[in-house]
């Protein structure tokens, strides 16, 4: 009776040993070709013999002669292994200069302000067909969105992703107080941004913990410098962002220390382990890193 062999009984080493012995007609030469020890090859052959219920190769003066079953197996097994190796080593068809690919990138609002223009400026001449779709909200967990490829890359301060191995630190930032340089800051008069579902929620939470109630709360950081003009209010803003925004204002701002310490801001780029051979994702990640590295210097505030 013909024995049924299921795929879960096999592994690729068994098939590779089989086809190499078939070609070499010698266990020792097969071991050398495979970079294995001869006892290891003999053990794997014995295992394959048990699975097949057939000796597969018979020793003779001319070497290891294949049985009828081994001869029947040889061509389809060799073909299957060749096809598998070709599939696993298929060259990438990604070419940034000609690609029309659309990448979905999650960016926090601060990330968009700091980096989006730099990123687009960098890629528009070298990769004119590339499209970037920025995403500011998501359903479920952001990690799941990355792993199921709904989002290609996430960029920003995203503590729930900090433990992932597929992350790279871009830079660190800190929260500072900033006020209109023409006025004196009043004690305990602060403006903060409350950004739902973001790490920046730590700011109003820490103020509440210290018993300081902000006089103004806005939904994003971009509005904060604008509400300062002519007031004694101090806004709490990431330092890199406020330095950038100050260059777009006609009135001067001054940075001051806050009454208590807030956590450092770690800006990272995150991706999925499932994209490790995706040259498009590698390319985009490198463009983001380069956009940070060639960021123009931001002038200092007066002390």
From TrEMBL:
InterPro entries: LysR-type_TF, LysR_HTH_N, LysR_subst-bd, WH-like_DNA-bd_sf, WH_DNA-bd_sf. GO terms for molecular function: DNA binding; DNA-binding transcription factor activity. SUPFAM superfamilies: Periplasmic binding protein-like II, Winged helix' DNA-binding domain. Pfam families: HTH_1, LysR_substrate. Residues 10-67 form the HTH lysR-type domain. Signal peptide: none annotated. Keywords: DNA-binding, Transcription, Transcription regulation. Belongs to the LysR transcriptional regulatory family. This is HTH lysR-type domain-containing protein. The lineage of its organism: Bacteria, Pseudomonadati, Pseudomonadota, Gammaproteobacteria, Enterobacterales.
């Amino acid at each position: 009776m013909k024995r049924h062999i299921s795929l879960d009984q096999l592994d690729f080493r068994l098939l590779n040993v089989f086809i190499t012995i078939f070609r070499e007609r010698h266990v020792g030469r097969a071991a050398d070709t495979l970079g294995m020890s001869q006892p290891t090859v003999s053990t794997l052959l014995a295992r394959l013999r048990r699975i097949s219920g057939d000796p597969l190769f018979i020793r003779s003066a001319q070497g290891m002669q294949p049985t009828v079953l081994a001869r029947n197996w040889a061509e389809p097994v060799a073909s299957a292994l060749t096809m598998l190796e070709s599939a696993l080593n298929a060259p990438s068809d990604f070419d940034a200069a000609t690609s029309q690919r659309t990448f979905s990138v999650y960016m926090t609002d601060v990330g968009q302000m700091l980096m989006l223009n730099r990123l687009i400026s960098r890629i528009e001449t070298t990769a004119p067909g590339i499209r970037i779709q920025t995403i500011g909200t998501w359903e479920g967990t952001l990690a799941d969105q990355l792993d199921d490829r709904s989002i290609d890359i996430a960029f920003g301060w995203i503590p729930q992703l900090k433990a992932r191995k597929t992350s790279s630190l871009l830079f660190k930032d800190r929260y500072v107080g900033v006020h209109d340089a023409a006025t004196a800051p009043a004690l305990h008069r602060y403006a903060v941004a409350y950004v739902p579902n973001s790490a920046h929620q730590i700011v109003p939470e820490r103020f509440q913990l210290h018993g300081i109630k902000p006089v103004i709360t806005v939904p994003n950081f971009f509005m904060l410098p604008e509400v300062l003009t002519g007031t004694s209010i101090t806004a709490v803003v990431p330092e890199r962002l406020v330095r950038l925004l100050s260059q777009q204002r006609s009135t001067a701002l001054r940075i001051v220390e806050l009454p208590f310490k807030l956590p450092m801001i770690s800006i990272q780029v995150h991706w999925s382990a499932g994209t490790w051979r995706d040259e498009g994702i590698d390319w985009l990640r490198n463009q983001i890193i380069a956009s940070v590295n060639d960021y123009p210097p931001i002038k200092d505030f007066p002390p």
